[in-house]
Each structure stands twice: as C-alpha cells, then as structure tokens.
Amino acid sequence: MKWFTKWRQRFRTMVRYRLLVLTSVPIIITLLALIALTMYWTLAYSWKSALAGVNADLAVASNSMEVLQREQRLQLNAIADSYDFQIQIERDPKRIFSWAQSRADKYGVDFLAVYPASQIDRLPLTLRQPLIEGRERTFFQVMSDIELEAITPDLSSRAEIPLLNEQVIESRGLISRSLLPLFNEAGELEWIIDGGILLNNSTELVDRIRDLVFPEGTLPDASVGTVTLFMDDIRVSTNVPLDSDNKFGRAIGTRVSDEVRKSVLENGDVWVNRAYVYDAWYISAYKPIRDFNNRVIGMLYTGYLEWPLISRYLTNLVELGFGILATLFVTGFLVYRGAKDLFRPIERIHRVVRLVRFDQDARIGKLGLDPQHELAILARQFDTMLDQLKQQNEAIRQNALELEDKVKERTASLHETTEELRQNITLLEQTRSKLLLNEKLAALGELTAGIAHEINNPTAVILGNIELMEYELGKNATLVSEEMSAVLEQIDRIRNITRSLLQYSRQGGVQDEITWQHVNPVIEESVTLVRSGTKKSDVEVVTELNAKCCVEINRHQLLQVLVNLQMNGVHAMNDRGKLVVRSSDWLDENGNPIGATISVQDFGCGIANENLTKIFDPFFTTRRSGTGLGLAVTHGIVSGLGGEIKVESELGEGTTFTLYLREKIQTDDEITSLQVME
C-alpha cells in the first residue's frame, strides 16, 4: 500500500513521470482504439460465423431427418416387394396384420401394419385422398397413448417420458410415419402398408444425426455438439447432457425456454441465437416440425456449448493484451531515457518554485544548457521575475501596515456609531410600542365611554320602572320579590361591568370593593348565569370545585371574568359539547396555600399557535361577530386583582384558561420586588 501511494504521489507531482504519461497517452489511445476495433470486428465476425454455422448445422440435421424418412419409405417398399409379403397375401391374407407386426424389427421400424383398403377410414381424412391417388406419404405425427396401444401393445410404454422436476409422465409419442398404397391389376387400391419409427427415447437416432452434423474436429476443444427432437416443448430425444461440465446423462423430459417456445411453436419461425439449454448456454438453432396438416407439433434443434467459443476468444484477447503491454513498456522506457536531459532542468525549476512558495529566497541560476535553449531563457526570465516580485512584496508590506492602522481607526469609529444606532433603535421600538398601546387605549376609552353611557340610560329606566312596580303592587310585591331581587341584582351587575370597562380604559380610577371570600360561590353563580343564557344550546356544564382557600377579589369583576370565559368556551364548541369548570388551591413549592386557581376547559376548535400571543390584545378576534374586547377586559381585571391568566390550547382539541388568584392582592412595589428576585 505504501509503495502504491509513493508512486501515485510521484505521478501526480513530478514532471518526469507526468511527461512520461503525456508522451505515452497517444500511444495508449491508439493501441486501445486498435484493441476496440479488433475486439468489435472479431466478436462480430465470430458471432455471425457462429450463428451461420449453427444455422447450417440445423440445415444438415433437417436433411438428415429427410434422409432417414426416405430410408423409412424405402424399407416399406422393400417389404411390399419382398417374397414373404407376396406369399402371405396369397396364402393367408387374414393374418397379414400379425405377420406385419412380427416383421417390424427386421425392417428397422418400431411398428408395421398392413390392412386392406376397406379400412382406410381409420386414417385421417387429409391422408386418404393422396393414398387413393397412389401417392406415398411420410410425415411426423403426435399420437396419444391409446393410439399407440392400438398400433402395437408395447409402443405406449416405450413412449412414456418422465418430465424432470414436474413429477408427471408424458404418455404421448412423436413418430415418423410412412404410408404406402398398393394397387391390384385393375388399378384399384387394395392394401395400405403403415410403418414408422417412435422418436421418443430414440437415442441412437439423435446420436446418428449428431455424428453427421458435428464430425470430429469441427468444434472447439471441450465443446459439445447436440441434437434434440421436441414434441411440443418437451425434449423426447436428445444428447444434451444433464451435466454439461461432466457430460453426464441426457436431458430427456425437460422443456425448452419460453422465448424459443413462443417463436418456434407459436409463430412457426426458425430461431437462431444463444439459448440457455437446460443447464448451460449453447449456440442454438431451432426449426419447427410439422405434421400432415402443416401444424407445428415439435422442433428440431442443433447447437453446441458457447463457453469453449468464448474461452478461445478470451484467450486471444489475453495474448493480444500481453503484446500491447510489452509494447507500452518498451516505448515508455525509450521515452524515459530519451527525455532524461529534459527532465533535470524542469525538476530544478520546480524545486525553486516550491522553495519560493515557502518564502525562501532561492534562484534557478545556470542550468548547464545552451544559452539559447528555451529552458535556459525561461530560467533567466523566472529569476528576473523573482527579483521584481521581492521588491513588490516589500512595497506591499509597507502599504499593508499603513492600511492596517487606518482600518483600526475607522473600525473604532464605526463601532461607536453602530452602538449608538442600536440604542436609538431600541428606544424607537419602545416608543413605538407605547404609542401603539396609547392609541388602542384611547380608542378603547372612547368606545367604552359610549357603551357605558348607552347602557346606563336604559338601566336607569329599568330600575325606575321596577321601583314603580313595587310601589304599585304594594303588599302584593312580596309575590314577585325574588324575581325583582334578581332583576335588581343583574342591573347592579350591568353597572359594575360598565364601571370595569371604564376603569380598564382609563388605566386606573375608582376601585371597586375588594372583599375576602371563597371563589366557589362565585363560580356557582357564574355557571347558573351561563346555564340560563344557554338553555337553547346543547351544552353540558360540569363543575369540580375543590378550592378551600379564601382570596381577595372583587366579586362582580370575577363573576364577569368567569361568565366571559365560559361563554367563549360555549361559542368555541358551536353551542354543543361539554364545558368543565374546576377550582383548586394554589400551593407553593413547600405545599403551603398561596391562593386559588380556577380553570375553564372547553373541547372546541382550539386556538392556533400564532394567535396565542395576540388573544389578550384589544380588538383582536377571530369571530365575525366578536369585538375583541372580552379577553382584553378579562386580562385587565385579573391583572388588577393581582392575579395571572394562562392559556393552553391544541388546534381541533380544545382550550383551557386558568386563573391564578392570590390570598392577598400584591401592591405594585411588591410585584416589582418579586420580579427582581426572580
């Protein structure tokens, strides 16, 4: 690894090796181009030659099959001309069928039958007319096990082929069949000779064809020439081995690939290409086998192993590669030795450049070359440039020192100006916030003053009419005393509300009466008011009142806050749902009570996160019919009571407002000192 890193660094940094690479690149590119062209031409030529060869082999195999079928017909003619056949017909024509079966082996066929012309109906319709016309027929045919059994009893068992990896036995048989018509002296069809060969498991037949197609010495070493007969897509007779490496067994009972099956069996085309034959790649050619109706019933295949051909091709490439590497080595060595005088001056110049980069005062000097040599001229120019550069660097250093002093002065002045600007911006932001708040409060004051005036006038009329009704009723007023008391109490509440609005808008003023009392009764009263105001709504108000501590509060203001929060919850739930009001003691870290907490929880639409910081601002609202004053007034009342209000909300789940009320209202000084301590 270190050796590789060392030489890699040399090639990347040293001129000698980089120049060696540059001079070798044209040679390498030329040689690579030649290699590519050679590979392309040889591969294309070899591949085309291989395909043409296997196609020719397929033609030879097909001709061999035709020769075998011709011999098969000649055998039937020999039977018809034989003395035994003529004697048998003359003496005992009824036993001619059994006689023919007994002579099948003698004439080299698997089955032999002779039957009179009256039984021509046992043959397919397309075969009858040619026989009547006196034409011999030789063809391929697929027979079922029943048909084979009818011809010869043991023929069906000989045709059985177990399909590998499928646990199925193929019982059909592929036969080469010949029909020979015999006529009497009157020219009438009298006898039909029917004979043929069963091609299933006929290893001698395919071996014979293979020896004709692939004579010894025509294939590369270790290659295997194969011939196969297919019935449909099943190999019924083949010398393709089950193990192509060890040339073991025969792949009878295996199927052809889907690609070949579609092309040859379904489309009826001749297929010539490389194909995966059972367990190895073969240069292959397939041709359809047709029956007497011109239907494709099988295939004839020839092919040989692809790997020996590829191996021979790769061997040639390796030999070519070694020759190229040797050529590169020799040319590189010659370039390196021839350029040695050129490398040394360049390396010396490079060394001086590196020293100068590390601020060392170095010069190239004389290189021992002719003064008019280009490198000698370059060295002198470079030394002159270094002298000029040294002078310029000194001048730049002096200017830099002066510039640095000026920058320090300007930076200090800019820092002071920036600090002053930041303070002015902060002050401006504070002033802007105060002006904005004052504008809101001024608008709120004007609005609440008008509201209080408009509310107080009808309130005074209502109060006067109540007193008049009480006077007119006299003693009967006791019958509606509770109702009149409730009306008077609500009128008093209306006045307190208008007074609270005025107090909030004026930022101070007359304080309402502060009393020391429990919060639970006030909560119950607020719930009663909310329930009476939402009778038409489908809202369930649930209370969990556990507070025991008394706090300093203005009862009317707290009632206003609670009613406002509960009504907001009802509106958030669209007047339908569950509203929970809770109270509990507010405890410090040591568990001592410091006040009471009141929470109002709804299960409505919730508040978006970006709106949580704005809901207590005056005039901010997300409801069309809202004014944006409810929560602003609520916040002002709670702050005036020395308490706090917090909100928790999840969009789509609901909102919880929590009031924190202290036992004793803190003064402004106490609040300020507490904030300083925190």
TrEMBL record:
CDD domains per record: HisKA
Question: Which Gene Ontology cellular component annotation is one that this UniProt entry carries?
Answer: plasma membrane
Q: Where does the chain cross the membrane?
A: 20-41
- Start and end residues of each HAMP domain: 340-394
Parts forming coiled coils: 379-406
Query: What Pfam families does the record tag this protein with?
Result: HATPase_c (PF02518), HisKA (PF00512), sCache_3_3 (PF17202)
Predominant location: membrane
The way this protein sits in the membrane is described as: Multi-pass membrane protein
Q: Which domain of life is it from?
A: Bacteria
List locations, semicolon-separated.
Answer: Cell inner membrane; Cell membrane
Keywords from the named record: Cell membrane, Coiled coil, Kinase, Membrane, Phosphoprotein, Transferase, Transmembrane, Transmembrane helix
Q: Mind telling me what this protein is named?
A: histidine kinase
What lineage, starting at the top, does this entry show?
Bacteria, Pseudomonadati, Pseudomonadota, Gammaproteobacteria, Vibrionales
